[in-house]
Amino acid sequence: MNEVHLEEVAIINTLLEQLDNKMNFELFSKNLQKLLEHMKDHFSSEEELMKEVQYPSLQMHKADHDKVLNQTRYAEMQWRNKKDEDEIREYLEENIMPWLDQHIKAMDVPMADFVLSVKHI
Ligand SMILES: [Fe+2]
């Protein structure tokens, strides 16, 4: 589970580096798409796992996923329309990064503990 998050952090760091280095629009946009895809896959695999073990806080956890996914979709759309580098940088640095940190501590860690306690894997 942690590795998946590290992959997300790696994609976000790549995006921030690209902004620093004035990379081209297409390449940056592609990586932003990659981040969205990665988040979608990651969240749905967590949700499957929570269903499988009948995790009591599934709805709350899923709602947190849906919220950030919608915000990221919106940020991506704004980027495509406006190409505003400051705006997308602010989103990555001040929204997604702190969200990830907070979500891991508040939701993913307790979920992982629960899964381990029922699955003994
Ligand atoms: Fe999660």
Tags for this model:
single chain, 121 residues, mainly alpha, 4 helices, elongated, binds fe (ii) ion
Describe the structure.
It is a single chain. The protein is mainly alpha-helical and 121 residues long. It contains 4 helices and no strands. Helix 1 (2-20) packs antiparallel against helix 4 (85-119), helix 2 (25-52) runs antiparallel to helix 3 and helix 3 (58-82) runs antiparallel to helix 4 (85-119). The longest helix has 35 residues, at 85-119. The model has no long low-confidence stretch (mean pLDDT 91). Bound molecules: fe (ii) ion. The site of fe (ii) ion has 6 residues, from helix 3 and helix 4.
Write a short abstract of this structure.
By secondary structure, the protein is an all-alpha fold.
Bound molecules: fe (ii) ion
SSE series: HHHH
- Strand segment count: 0
Task: Give the biggest beta sheet.
Answer: none
Mean pLDDT: 91
Low-confidence stretches: none
**General shape:** elongated
How far apart the termini lie comes to: 13 Å
Helix content: over 70%
Q: What's the number of helices?
A: 4
Which radius of gyration do the C-alpha atoms yield? 16 Å
Question: Percent of residues in beta strands?
Answer: under 5%
